[in-house]
Amino acid sequence: MCGRYGLNHSHPVLTDWYRASYIPELKPRYNIAPAMEILAMRETEPGRIGSTMRWGLIPHWAKDTKKLPVMNNARAETIAEKPMFKQSFRQRRCLIPASGFFEWKAEGTSKQPYFISSRDGAPFSFAGIWGTWTADTGESIDSCTIITIECNALMQPIHDRMPVILSPEDWAAWLDPESKQDEILLSLLKPFDAERMQAWAVSSAVGRVTNQGEELIRPNTNNHQ
Predict the structure, then answer these.
(1) Which of 74, 115, 143, 154 could disulfide-pair with 54, CB 3.0 to 4.6 Å?
(2) For this structure, is 94 an active site residue?
(3) Domains recognised in the chain with CATH numbers
(4) In angstroms, what is the C-alpha Rg of the chain?
């Protein structure tokens, strides 16, 4: 699963990395949790743009968003079949930028959080799907979810799931709104190369959503992956 991540790359870096025609200015965030507003990249007529969406996909048929579980993740193995996700999977795909993500490793009766990032310092691009929910009042909310997959070798000692991370060469195929062939899209959903990732233990302070700051991603012990 993926239930917490950070995005602290600067606006110029993100704009250049995604070759975007527009990305909103955002402050660095080190502890992003489900139900928060997050950055999502989409392909549109004017080009590749970034916009903010609620993290946790709201199905179009929902009557009350407060009574829904927060659907922050969708499993790659079933995304093309589940009614909750399949329409967005075929029609509304996005990239969700991240500087790294957190996962908790069970250690006896406690859990140790780890921060996982790219070895080369580049942003991660999580595969996501999105949708627009419209209330009876006419209010609309764009929301999205992060797709997860079985873990690679680096992540296996920490957790059994990880977000799908797409390399730049796969972005165009994933974001193309005209691409609707399941076999092509599903072939992109695979574990990221473990050699391109790094992980280290961090402070348990990340467990509290209200905690923010660069100290949350600093190594906490000598326990490195």
Answers:
(1) 143
(2) no
(3) 5-217 (3.90.1680.10)
(4) 17
138, 216, 219 from 147: Cα distances, Å? 29, 24, 27
pLDDT 10s digits, 65-94: 777 777 899 999 999 999 999 999 999 999
Question: Looking at 2, 94, 144, 151, which residue is catalytic?
Answer: 2
Judge whether 204 and 215 are in contact, CB under 8 Å.
no
| pLDDT tens per residue across span 11-55 | 999 999 999 999 999 999 999 999 999 999 999 988 999 999 999
SS (H, E, C) 81-146: CCCCCHHHHHHCEEEEEECEEEEEEEECCEEEEEEEEECCCCCEEEEEEEEEEECCCCCEEEEEEE
Res 95: pLDDT: 98
Please pick, among 43, 77, 94, 103, the residue that the annotation labels catalytic. Answer: 103
Is residue 103 part of the annotated active site? The answer reads yes
CA-CA distance, 51 to 22, in Å (whole number)? 8
- The mean per-residue pLDDT over the stretch 202-213 comes to 94
